[in-house]
Amino acid sequence: RAKSKNLDELDDLVSSLNKMKLNLQETHEQVVQYSEGLEKLVAVATKEINEEKDKIGNLLNNIQVSIFVIGKDFKILPPVSHFSESLFNRDIVGAHISQILFFNFKKGTKNYQDLVSTFRKIFETNINNFTKLTSKLPKKVTIPDQFKKRGKVLKLSYKAIPNQNNIIEKLMCTAQDITENEALLNLTMLDQTKYY
Prior knowledge:
Elements: H1 2-62, E1 66-70, E2 76-77, H2 83-88, H3 97-100, H4 110-122, H5 130-134, E3 140-145, E4 148-162, E5 168-177, H6 179-195
Antiparallel strand pairs: 1-2, 1-5, 3-4, 4-5
């Protein structure tokens, strides 16, 4: 009887091990299927993200406005719109904004100190205070241009990019060449003064 009991226990053990092996195989197959499904989901999501990124890139590259981001160190960060290189006649990534937009603000002058102070305050402030500070930033600047004697007149606009604490960490800037518009406006004003 002892031998029979040992064989029954051994049979039970073998049966349990076989069930465990079968369960492990089934679980492994489920994990493999789940993993393959997850890989497919990730591939689809990655494809969608890349398509949206390409669309945004195409939009950025096909508009006639320079779009770029300014960091806390006052340097221009990538990416920038392709039009930026045409507008500024150079690659502007890594350049200090005083070399690109505000070169006519001479160091040591009150205008320069006010400009630097405003930018510093922007990068230390909450998004809610941004509008008040942007009113102190130039909305129009003239930059030198090798093809235009009087330079290019740019219309500037700014948009804050805050961090998760709503403190501004980057500043998006758009620059649009309004040289032709300004010339026409000046010509119209001159014509009107002659008429009256």
